[in-house]
Amino acid sequence: MSTPKTPDPGMLVISVLSADWGAFWPQVGAELADRFGPFDPSEEFDFDQTDYYDKELGTPITRRLLAFDALRPLDELADIKLWTNSVEQRFARDGRRLFNLDPGFLTQQSLVLATGKNFSHRIYLKDGIWADLTLIWQKKRWVDFPWTFPDYAGEAMKSRLTKLRQSYRNRQSKPRT
């Protein structure tokens, strides 16, 4: 028989996509910090693996990864996604989002993203939100799946996530106050 145990908290990572950062940043950055605490933003980098968001967000789209300092319980993922959806909607203009916020949790074992879209490999959490197992850490590297989004399957993203994973490991080893 397995004995239920609360898992270690995860590192909240939010991917932000936009073609018009001046229209909402740093205000949204401040809201994210107010809600989830301090974060380290990556540099902006190209998001060109798909044109899925071009019509809604415009072009060229760039991405920032935000890695939050405070580790959080994994069961908060659905609530975080619902809140980020509300922020996207609040800043939308003429029915179009200015940015896309994709939250997820990075742990030593995996990267799990939240989504409002069901698919065969996704696990339902609550309130219309599913968990998407995007990458797993195996044999000292990130391993993707046939369903992993192309931008997350690329080496540039995996390299960034490897650095974040090390930061996560360092935070885990520090005593919690």
TrEMBL record:
Name the record gives this protein: GTP-binding protein
Species name: Pseudodesulfovibrio indicus
